[in-house]
Amino acid sequence: MVLSCTDVRKTFGSNVVLDGLSLDVGEHEVVALIGASGSGKSTLLRCVNLLAEIDDGVIRLDGEDITDPRVDPDAVRQKIGLVFQSYNLFPHMTVLDNITLAPVRVHRRAAQDARDQAREWLDRVGLADKAGSYPDKLSGGQQQRVAIVRALVNNPRLLLLDEVTSALDPELVGEVLTMIRDLKGEGMTMVLATHEMGFARQVADRVAFLDKGRVLEQGPPEQVLGDPVEARTRQFLARIIEAGRL
Amino acid sequence: MTSPFHEPSLIQQDRITFRRRKAVRSVLLAALSTAIVGTLLGVLITGAPGWDRVRQSFLDPDIAVDWLPEILQGLWLNLRMLVFCALAALALGLLIAVLRTLRGPVFFPVRALATLYTYSFRGLPLIIVIYLMAFGIPGLRLQGTPSVTVLGGAAIVITYGAYLAEVFRAGIESVHPSQIAAARSLGLSYRQSMRFVVLPQAVRRVAPPLLNDTVALQKDVGLISLAGPIDAIRAAQIGVAQTANFTPYVVAGVLFVLLALPLIGITDWVTLRAARRQAGGE
């Protein structure tokens, strides 16, 4: 297992967001987290990346307990990429500097080497001409693709994607989803929180439905999205269909 | 996009004519009101019963020319002090602001001291700090006590450092937490996140207020004359005492304004640029 969450609990005051959640993710596996707003999808991703501290349970990365307070969180984060809903690019840096910051400062790569690699990636995702631009000159879809590249150049073991298309105009969603599909083709292990059921069906090996801070139901996309066992999953999907998003 | 060669419609032509006429009228009105206010002020001041005496004792051209070299020499000290104090106060302010953001129990004393410092020195009048530093510290009769000029400069740095620290802190807090989350998620340490992600954005955002405080510092540098060194104000004071005429003060005042103009200009330019960038231009 690349990632293994066992009985994870996370509360904010009296609000229990994760309530004994367990989830395993294997090598090269893509797991889509679905569920209503507030079901704990984003919180789980933040906990896995140690941006939020869990209140109980264990999270393991390649078998190592990363929620042990004696573990250096910076070292763990170097092995996990996280892409945010609102991109969170650094506005004062060019696209190229955004991408090379961590390779140069954290992984101590030579600057020229890091720049070459960044340009290669930008070329691959069709943004070669944007290397010198500042993020606010890019469209949302372009910014999000840069953010994904920024996470990928650190060669993470695991890539976490937190509703990466939710802030995008509908016509820009496609370019980001294409990129994620390509990553799956290369064998990247990914956990993605998403509202795009169609995309979850296409790209995920497994869909996990989160409800009240637990994984209520999980399995192959056809089964969870097409023929769910749990009543709550059916209710959730019915609401999604009603909203015209499936 | 429409073609650049667009013939305005009749309605639009009418609007353009109207706006042009309005603009011309505004310019004429502004010129007229300026002329009226200027004349009134001139008449009021020069027509005042004491005007001749005021002109003699404040605006005597011969005395101005006589004392200009001395005051300029004093101003050279102000200028050097300004550069040193501004740079030192900016560095101190940034340091204190960063210390105040440190988390964790180990840093509690550091945080507490930094907070105490910004609270007390923003309340203390600069004049009192200058007196305490310039006269109190030599009173200790320690070996190697620096000159009063240095001590006076240190008083200015300590006082302004407290103000600038708060400006820097406001800038640091204005950077959205998601920026730190993004930096940390890439594996950057807290220090690296501050240095490469938070501080560059914070400093850019607070550049206008920082520069504005530097303009204020510039004229307060003249207060070290209270401790004894002969700066522009002290030189003017000596001139006033010797000639029994206030013209040297006016000369010093004009020189201070001239000294401030470039910095004020830069401040306005930076502010304008920041506002434009915020509006999405550039």
Keywords:
heterodimer, A: 246 residues, alpha/beta, Rossmann fold, six-stranded mixed sheet, 9 helices, 10 strands, globular, B: 282 residues, mainly alpha, MetI-like fold, 80% helix, flat
Short description:
The complex is a heterodimer of chains A (246) and B (282). Chain A is α/β, with parallel strands linked by helices and 246 residues long. In chain A, 37% of the residues lie in helices and 24% in strands.
SSE order and pairing:
The complex is a heterodimer of chains A (246) and B (282).
Chain A: E1 3-12, E2 15-25, E3 30-34, H1 41-48, E4 56-61, E5 64-65, H2 73-77, E6 80-83, H3 95-105, H4 111-124, H5 140-152, E7 158-162, H6 170-185, E8 190-193, H7 197-203, E9 206-211, E10 214-219, H8 221-226, H9 231-242
Parallel strand pairs in A: 3-8, 3-9, 6-7, 7-8
Antiparallel strand pairs in A: 1-2, 1-4, 4-5, 9-10
Helix pairs in contact in A: 3-4, 3-5, 5-6
Chain B: H1 10-46, H2 51-58, H3 61-101, H4 108-123, H5 126-139, H6 148-174, H7 177-185, H8 190-220, H9 232-243, H10 247-278
Helix pairs in contact in B: 3-4, 3-6, 3-8, 3-9, 3-10, 4-6, 5-6, 6-8, 7-8, 8-10, 9-10
| Largest sheet, strands/sense/barrel of chain B | none
In sequence order, what are the helices and strands of chain A, one letter per element?
EEEHEEHEHHHEHEHEEHH
How many helical elements of chain A?
Answer: 9
Q: Ranges of chain A with pLDDT <50 over ≥5 residues?
A: none
Please give the radius of gyration of chain B in angstroms. Answer: 26 Å
CATH topology of chain B: MetI-like fold
Name the average pLDDT of chain B: 90
CATH architectural designation of chain B? Orthogonal Bundle
CA(first)-CA(last) distance of chain B = 20 Å
Shape assignment of chain B: flat
Kindly estimate the percentage of residues of chain A that lie in beta strands according to DSSP.
Answer: 15-25%
Helix content of chain B: over 70%
Radius of gyration of chain A: 18 Å
How would you write the strand order of the largest sheet of chain A? 6-7-8-3-9-10
